[in-house]
Amino acid sequence: xxxxxxxxxxxxxxxxxxVASMTKIATKKTAGILGDDxxxxxxxxxxxxxxxxxxxxxxxxxxxxxxxxIILPVAFxxxxxxxxxxxIILLLGGIYLAFEGAEKIYELFVPxxxxxxxxxxxxxxxxxxxALEKERIKSAIVTDFILSVEIVIIALGSVVGEALTNQIxxxxxxxxxxxxxxxxIVALIxxxxxxxxxxxxxxxxxxxxxxxxxxxxxxxxxIVIKSLGIIGTIALLLVAxxxxxxxxxxxxxxxxxxxxxxxxxxVGLVVGFVALMLFKxxxxxxxx
Length: 288
What we know:
Layout: H1 2-45, H2 50-81, H3 83-109, H4 116-122, H5 126-157, H6 164-190, H7 192-202, H8 209-247, H9 249-252, H10 260-287
Helix pairs in contact: 1-5, 1-6, 1-8, 2-3, 2-5, 2-6, 3-5, 3-8, 3-10, 5-6, 7-8, 8-10
């Protein structure tokens, strides 16, 4: 009886050791997309009043967890019974990400009525602020959904051929780590200024180390947010381009002399602007 019990414990230990090894490999393969996810979501969660940053981020985080709950079982089922559907979903998601990236570049160079950041600054009433928050939260959750699909599929691809139990455990762990890790770091970034002000307030003199550290954090936040906005836009196009180059044979072998990153960015940019122009054309036709 005792030997049977210890045999079960040994099996469990072996399983967890295998899972840990596979999780480490899957984490390495998804590290790039996790970095893109961080940049994109930090940019989307910024720009709000200090009192609203954490509630907005928490709403996006809950949406991200819900995304994973939806994606994981569907991914396992499709991987087993209809793998082609995963590729189609990835390509559709790639078009959306490329569209978002191209729209940001378009708005940077082409005069337009209002950007989302300007809209945040100009809203006055509580109803306007809440409506704008709702819009940006929805946009962030949609983008998170697509990035989550990419993370799950890459993680799943790293454990193909393993037992289904191992696949489920590894991919689920990666999905949880992605959400907790990314949004935890985003929370730290967007609260940099609050931490800085607290350090300055607690410092006994303005020439002390903590006062200067707090001052540095306050001054650094706008630079970090602006940098993340740029990085987030580049990340959207890189992820989108990567989806197409990895899943469409013709594009994968296009311009082999170019570095992968340059090719992915170029493909994402082209797809994004084609999608943006089609969107504007359809919108104009429907508007008329």
